[in-house]
UniProtKB/TrEMBL annotation:
It comes from the Bacteria. This is M20 family metallopeptidase. Its cofactor is Zn(2+). The keyword Zinc applies.
Length: 385
């Protein structure tokens, strides 16, 4: 038997399936690429409208270049709140909706961002709406709807870290895994831009006078890739390479983009030092290499999610479904809050798959039960110190 407040909220959510699907269709049918401020702000407009209709406090933080930061609040705003998180941006270019908007086949929804993570946004809205219908919400709740997670949260990170201060727990509604599991651990990751300068020379007439930036870069790539350690969960990958002016010119410049992944912050620190040392090595006389960090996510270490997951798992069982925890190599905003020492659980959204592709889908029959389980977990956190 559920506690009365949990039962009250879950009973209301039980009848919201079609309403949730309708909201999902509305959000998916708005282009909201990370660099599309207007589109992201249109998504924020709809979310604000839904929440304010139920008397939920919504604060909008205007941003000059990226989508506005949307913050919702229930109850007091002091210490010990629960923070819900979700991002409005998608990876799909503006104009995608015109050719491939929301569609549905039985209990499966399709469309750009349907799983990652507009279904999660709908879920957070309905968690808040369910809580607003209780006789009293027993603990403070805040929700952030950011707009740049897909590009590393360069603007959203500061708002996330500020909103997490004093939180007893963070619940992030990235899509549930195709297995039905939630995410209890995530790799951290970072992107780097490597630039190498050299000296041009005619490759036939005066080859020895040149200093090949491409050769230096090639040597560094071999060393960078050697840092990969599958057993430890560390990977390095140079994914793009450009350089040179012509086939018969010793290359005066070259550049590459490096992706790194790691499981712990300790690994991160060691990896960064190793990368810096490789870039600093001379390799070819007359060449020089520099490196610039272009993006970063911190890892969600599994020790930060274990107790919170146990609570969620028990509440899911009460709702009527079994769930396990899962580790993934993908990054998310959950790493920012976990790195602050706050219990954090991710992948709590509806179940979906094939994210970032034209075949992305969401299992619509997971909308209500996953929202009920999240609401029940949140309400159970009132007993956490």
């Amino acid at each position: 038997m559920q506690e009365p407040l949990i039962q009250h909220a879950c009973d209301w959510l039980e009848g919201q399936q079609q309403a949730m699907v309708d909201c999902l269709a509305a959000l998916v049918n708005i282009d909201s690429n990370s660099y599309d401020k207007a589109g992201n702000d249109k998504v924020a407009d709809l979310i604000s409208q839904w929440l304010e209709q139920d008397g939920i406090t919504v604060i909008r933080h205007p941003r000059p270049d990226s989508g506005d930061i949307l913050e919702a609040q229930l109850g007091e705003t002091g210490q010990g709140h629960v923070l819900l998180m979700g991002h409005r941006d998608t990876v799909f270019p503006t104009g995608t909706v015109a050719s491939r908007g929301y569609t549905q086949q039985d209990e499966v929804g399709f469309g750009p961002g349907v799983a990652d993570m507009k279904s999660g946004l709908v879920m957070n809205c309905f968690v808040l709406r369910a809580l607003s219908r209780l006789p009293n919400c027993p603990l403070p709740v805040r929700a952030l709807f950011t707009a740049d997670e897909e590009i590393g949260s360069p603007d959203g990170r500061a708002f996330i870290e500020a909103a997490a201060q004093g939180a007893r727990a963070v619940l992030n509604v990235e899509p549930g895994r195709v297995s039905g599991n939630v995410v209890t651990g995530r790799k951290g990751g970072a992107g780097f831009l490597i630039n190498v300068t050299g000296k041009a020379a005619h490759s036939g007439v005066s080859h020895a006078d040149g200093a090949s930036a491409i050769e230096t870069l090639a040597r560094k790539i071999i060393k960078l890739h050697a840092l990969t350690d599958y057993a430890a969960g560390i990977t390095t990958n140079v994914g793009t390479v450009t350089g040179g002016v012509s086939r018969n010119t010793v290359a005066p410049f070259a550049s590459a983009q490096l992706d790194t992944r790691f499981v712990t912050t300790a690994q991160r620190d060691q990896l960064y030092k190793a990368i810096e040392a490789i870039i600093a090595e001379p390799d070819i006389p007359g060449t020089q290499a520099t490196i610039e960090q272009t993006s970063e996510f911190y890892p969600l270490e599994e020790r930060m999610s274990s107790e919170l997951f146990a609570l969620y798992q028990s509440q899911a069982k009460n709702i009527g479904f079994a769930v396990d925890g899962e580790f993934t190599g993908g990054c998310s905003d959950a790493g920012w809050t976990a790195s602050l020492g706050i219990p954090t659980l991710c992948g709590l959204g509806p179940v979906g798959a094939k994210m970032h592709t034209d075949e992305e889908y969401c299992l619509l029959n997971t909308l209500v039960p996953r929202t009920q389980a999240l609401t029940a977990t949140l309400l159970s956190l009132k007993d956490w110190a």
